[in-house]
Amino acid sequence: MKVAVFSTKAYDRQFLDLENRESQANHELVYFEARLEPKTASLATGFEAVCVFVNDDLGTETLEILAKDGTKLIALRCTGFNNVNLESAAKLGIKVVRVTTYSPYSVAEHAVGLILMLNRKLYRAYNRVRDDNFSLDGLLGFDLRDRTVGVIGTGKIGQIFAQIMAGFGCHLLGYDAYPNENFEKMGNAKYVSLEELWQRSDIISLHCPLLPETKNLINQEAISQMKQGVMLINTSRGKLVDTKAVIEGIKTGKIGYVGIDVYEEEEHLFFEDLSDTIIQDDTFQLLQSFSNVVITAHQAFFTENALKDISHTTIANLTDFEQGKPLQNEVK
Questions:
Q1: HEC-encoded secondary structure of 120-135
Q2: Quick one: which H or E segment has residue 321?
Q3: CATH of the domain at 156
Q4: 20 to 30 Å CA-CA from 225: which of 29, 48, 90, 286?
Q5: What is the pLDDT of residues 99-147, one digit of tens each?
């Protein structure tokens, strides 16, 4: 099957080509570095399927162009599908499949890495030593043992994150619309209301999907209930957080640390080298100017294990569609 693959980098091509070859699927994968959006959708003319990533635009306008030009399948090489207008896709007769799971350890471990980076000021220490500055002033951290960690979303990733933090000796507070019975089996772990989690947590880490009810979950009202100097970690979706409210929280000292791997307006920033350009997003520029903020560019998923899992499921989804088999990973 002929597939237009958008938003691709060298690593996408490497892992997808390897899986396509080893599985003997033999799809014709045509790679485009461009992000899929209305103005680039014509690149998919004549392709039965398109393969897209988290920041591609699958709104109604894009979908109508794809449908008119013959596309019947959208294969997401990610778990989230908030960038797809599912109602429009259904009306246009376009099937949507996704990667329902990949190495949950990749994201969970990255979240823990952000916590350690912020707490022990590793980013500042690294730069100091490279400048032959061996002073410890300003690098004071705290023991994670006996700290209270709020985990919002206790699915596979949240569960593993909680297990790691339990290993540090932390107390765990969980919140999830669909509680996981294994969460409270860990020592020092229990489910609480969202309000109690805000009030008691020293560290809050987001591991939930982006849905209408979770958009801007971290907002001015939520921040006002948090502990003074709270640490906020987000490795899930950028729009879970109202960035301007977070900036105000940093200014007042309510938020003491911020570690994010996602950003609400990241689609025009992340995955690109913009080092020779002037970034026009003033909110992002202000956020990264704070010394107690660490930002990584949507790399939490970026491990060999995760990319192998993503490629395996993506190629399998394409093959199932081509062979007329039931689409196990269809999004409806």
A1: CCHHHHHHHHHCCCCC
A2: helix 304-322
A3: 3.40.50.720
A4: 286
A5: 999 999 999 999 999 999 999 999 999 999 999 999 999 999 999 999 9
Say if residue 264 is in the same domain as residue 247.
yes
Residues 284 and 307 in one domain: no
Query: Can you tell me the distance from the alpha carbon of 6 to that of 37, in angstroms, rounded to the nearest whole number?
Result: 10
| C-alpha span between 53 and 11 (Å, rounded) | 13
Q: Is the pTM of this model over 0.85?
A: yes
Residues 135 and 264 in one domain: yes
Return the beta strands (E) in the chain as ranges.
2-5, 28-31, 49-52, 73-76, 95-97, 148-152, 171-175, 189-191, 203-206, 230-234, 255-260, 293-295
Mark whether 258 and 121 lie in a shared domain: yes
Model confidence at 198: pLDDT above 90: yes
**Residue indicated by tokens 């200014």:** 251
- What pLDDT digit, counting tens, does each position of 154-172 carry? 999 999 999 999 999 999 9
Asked if residues 239 and 210 have their Cβ atoms less than 8 Å apart, the reply is yes
Task: Tally Cβ neighbours within 10 Å of residue 213.
Answer: 8
Shared domain for 271 and 314, answered yes or no, is no
